[in-house]
């Protein structure tokens, strides 16, 4: 038997269209893609070249500092789970090829949550001003 693609109903409730690969009809797949590009800009910038660039930054950090996270809102600490993080997050108008810094996964998540929280605060402030 060869690889046959079977069409299934779109996973979006009430959609009568058929989906072949991603579980969504072409219209809903495009909608999801637009949403991800708008809300999670790093999904667009995660090419293999970008992954290699990030790996080089982390490797260079390890050569100089070892498994050590400089910390974000916490003291510097040992961590073997280091990641490359945009200095200015892409979500905050940073460039996908912008400078990277190294943080552990926990600090990176904390920084991202703080960035998202401050963005939400600005949005809420704008809502209050325009109301």
State the helical fraction: 40-55%
Tell me the fraction of residues in β-strands, as a range: 5-15%
| Unreliable parts | 119-131
Overall form: elongated
Keyphrases for this structure?
131 residues; two-stranded antiparallel ribbon; 6 strands
Provide an overview of this structure.
With 131 residues, the protein is an alpha+beta fold. The chain has two domains: 8-39, no CATH class; 47-130. The chain is built from four helices and six strands, in the order E-E-H-H-H-E-E-E-E-H. The strands form three sheets. The protein has a two-stranded antiparallel ribbon. Strands 3-4 form a two-stranded antiparallel ribbon. Strands 5-6 form a two-stranded antiparallel sheet. Mean pLDDT is 79; it is low at 119-131. This is HNH endonuclease.
Task: List the SSEs and their pairings.
Layout: E1 8-9, E2 18-19, H1 26-39, H2 42-45, H3 48-65, E3 68-69, E4 77-78, E5 82-86, E6 100-104, H4 105-130
Antiparallel strand pairs: 1-2, 3-4, 5-6
Summarize the structure.
Helix content is 47%, strand content 14%.
């Amino acid at each position: 038997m060869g690889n046959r693609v079977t069409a299934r109903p779109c996973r979006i409730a009430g959609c009568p269209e058929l989906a072949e690969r991603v579980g969504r009809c072409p219209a809903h797949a495009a909608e999801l893609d637009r949403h991800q590009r708008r809300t999670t800009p790093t999904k667009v910038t995660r090419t293999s070249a970008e992954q290699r660039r990030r790996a080089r930054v982390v490797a260079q950090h390890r050569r100089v500092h070892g498994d050590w996270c400089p910390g974000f809102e916490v003291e510097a600490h040992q961590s073997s789970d280091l990641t490359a993080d945009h200095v200015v997050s892409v979500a905050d108008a940073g460039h996908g090829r912008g400078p990277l810094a190294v943080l552990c996964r926990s600090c990176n998540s904390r920084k991202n949550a703080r960035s998202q929280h401050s963005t939400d605060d600005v949005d809420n402030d704008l809502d209050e001003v325009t109301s």
